[in-house]
Amino acid sequence: MPTILSLIKLAILSARKRAQLLFLLAVMAGLISSITLTPSVLLMEDIQDTVADAGEGQLNEASLIEMFADGIGTLTGGYIAFLVTIGALIPFWARASSPLHIQPWDGDRSAYARRAVLSFVHLLTATALSLLVLIILLLFTGAIGAALGGPNSFLIIVVITAMIWANILFSATANIAIIAASTDRKLPFAVAFSHIRLFMRPAVGSLAVFLFLSLIIENIFGSVIHGLVDGKNSAMLTSFVRGAIAFLSTALHISVLENIPALSSRARQD
To answer: Which pLDDT band, with edges at 50, 70 and 90, does 183 fall under?
Structure first.
């Protein structure tokens, strides 16, 4: 089985061969995100500023929960729009990076729509399962904390780590299902999960690398943007970078999966 590093190298080589398409799709993802994500970014910045400006003991948990509750519609709508954007664009890259040499633009409007809808559903499923795991872990943490007489730092770290890896695993599973959707095949999420567990280390490990690098790059750009502009312009540029980088990390991971022949062929045959 190929190593994570070798697969990442192959994915980067694939991206270089189709650099213009990848750049175009990433820019489109960024532009759409600069519209759909900006309200959410502005809201989160307002919450962060409120927390930072509040004196010690002046902002209690109830106030913070109320602030999130008031903006839950904005945050949810922005994130769903973000998933729609990625879901609509990523099938083009999945087709372009396929070893079957299929054209990204082949098909009529109904084919485009079907691939986009299936991709969005898979991404939404990954998000829903990640939230379910989070709820279960929080309940578990609360129960253990109550038994121990208070929150335990080690337990909190374990829960956060488990949540991160669960999200990466479900996201990798969604990308497998998207590969199938890009070739007009319906691959149930559960079946995609059964496939990816056979190639857990390269499939999940490579996505973890891409997400870690994305976080670093996003933070660097975010610091530069906040140093140059502020207000709504800053939020729009931040949203653009976030959308473009999220698309790039997803696209590169799909290229990694395409370079695991036993895995990508399973996805297309079911």
So the answer is: confident
**Taking phi first (over 0 means left), then psi (-120 to 50 degrees means alpha), and beta for anything else, what does residue 185 get?**
beta
Return the closest-CA partner of residue 121 out of 52, 200, 180, 203.
Answer: 180
209-240 tens-digit pLDDT:
999 999 999 999 988 998 888 888 899 999 99
Q: Indicate the DSSP class of residue 32.
A: H
Q: Could you give phi then psi for residue 217, rounded to 5 degrees? A: -65, -40
Half-sphere exposure of 121 (CA within 13 A, CB side): 14
**Predicted TM-score of the model (pTM):** 0.90
Number of domains in the chain: 1
Dist CA 269 CA 261 (whole Å): 12
Residues in the chain: 270
Q: Which structural domain range is residue 73 located in?
A: 4-269
Distance between CA atoms of residues 124 and 171, nearest Å: 10
